[in-house]
Amino acid sequence: MAPLATLRGIDKTFANGTIALAGLDLDVREGEFLSLLGPSGCGKSTVLRLLAGLTSPTRGAIAWRDARPALGFVFQEPTLMPWSNVAANVWLPLRLAGFSRANAQPRVDEALDRVGLTGFAKAYPRELSGGMKMRVSIARALVMRPQVLLMDEPFAALDEITRTKLNDDLVALKCSLGATVVFVTHSVYESIYLSTRVVVMARRPGRAVAEIAIDAPLPRNEEFRLGADYAQRCRETSLALHKVMDEVAEPACEGAPA
Amino acid sequence: MITRRLLEIALPVLMLVLALAIWEGAVRYYGIQPYVLPAPSLILATLYKDWQTLFGSLEVTLSITFEALAAAVLGGVALAILFAQWRLIERAFFPFAVVMQVTPIVAIAPLLLVYLSSSAAVLVCAFLVAFFPILSNTTLGLSSTDHNLLDLFQLYRATRWQQLIWLRLPGALPYFLGGLRIGGGLALIGAIVAEIAAGSAGQGAGLAYRIVESGFRLNIPRMFAALLLISVAGIVIYLVLTAVSYTLLHRWHDSARGRET
Q1: Which residues of B are less than 8 Å from A79 in CB distance?
Q2: Does residue B166 form part of some domain?
Q3: pLDDT tens, B147-162?
């Protein structure tokens, strides 16, 4: 079956001359959990923004197999409206699509249910922990019943314990929804645990350099995390990532004069 | 802890009473004449005796202040929205706003009195000083919107109007309220300054005019009484606007919430 989205020969140069992507080829296949793994500055967030239509490529083309599907976007920060309570934040995409509060109510409740926030509808973002805010953000993305969920390092700012829990919940969600997920991360372990496919990206300029398929079925559990296959994949991916890092001579320390 | 809280309230009150007592005592002990320095008791007695006149003047000054503030809020917010929606308009108009802001109102007042009736001139003066902080704060607020939220609105194909109403305006509210608090105080100052300029020409009936008039008649206790009313009016305006700000923000904005210690 043809991929859901095809990116071919994508170049992206920002207005200030920074080359974010050069000659990127990438397929997004229906139903997969695809992780984009790479160091900061390799353009992985730009790929998400391109897929979301928030920016357009300088050269190259993005083609969706059918019309652009319903998308959900989860940012690195929860990105909630602080003046609105949880229910109103989750309502937002539906509200923008013309749903009244009453009409949106069942879907808002369902989305909050799915992320385990039943009973928090009236709370304000300020009153929630970092992990709970992220759950609200995910509920907001789910409320449009997206076919494709784009996630930009959503758990990077969370503690290890919260992160592990959210990882498991995310995979369960993905399985029950049957959605396609494109997940940006810089954690090797997270990407292996979550994904059916990991694309390793290099920087200066940003491009895809390696691809690792992980065939173990989703959802996975602690057993998978302790298994030999997981360790093997992590080693393989780390090596690929290191090769990428070695290609570019690193400055001795970030911000040091060249 | 109760005693400490009690102390925190009692101390400033005690200091105020003490200062007034020293004032009162000094005036009596040294036999200072009321046309030099009236005792607090005499000021209060004057306030009571002249209440009819002074209260009428207070009403005049307050109504000018609130009309000016209302006009400044409407004008400032409307212009800020125009600025935020069309950056070129901001480019075009900002120099005017800055010129209006940096020119001292005392210097403009006599000119306005030439062109306008004295009541209109006073209103325009009060409006001019209250307008700028509201405009500049609201403009800043409207352009400080979270970029990720803007992306989100774009992703869900929000119209410009939806973006303004549901994202930019609520986000600008704390900034606007900050401007409003400054503008409220300044509107009173602008009204007083303009009244003094107009009053010296023998017109108007606001509190500042009472001060000027009482000064001419060497009625110093009444000057103090009018001054007291102006101070109280200023304090009340500030407290009311602070309460409005708290009511609107306390659920979500850091400025209106106590830190957990």
Answers
A1: 146, 148-149, 152
A2: yes
A3: 999 999 999 999 999 9
Chain B contacts of A125, Cβ < 8 Å? 252
Cβ contact A126–B151 (<8 Å): no
Give the total number of structural domains in chain B: 2
Residue of B nearest to A83 (CA): B252
> CB B250: neighbour CB atoms within 10 A?
12
CATH number, position B111: 1.10.3720.10
Residue B261 included in any domain: no
Report pTM: 0.85
Say whether both B126 and B199 belong to one domain: yes
Can you tell me the distance from the alpha carbon of B184 to that of B71, in angstroms, rounded to the nearest whole number?
A: 12
- Could you tell me which chain B residue has the CA closest to the CA of A123? B251
Of B157, B158, B252, the CB nearest to A83: B252
**What pLDDT band is residue A135 in, cutting at 50, 70 and 90?**
very high
pLDDT tens digits, one per residue of A76-126: 999 999 999 999 999 999 999 999 999 999 999 999 988 889 899 999 999
Provide the strand spans (E) within A76-177.
148-152
* Contact assessment for residue B215 and residue B225, using Cβ atoms and an 8 Å cutoff: no
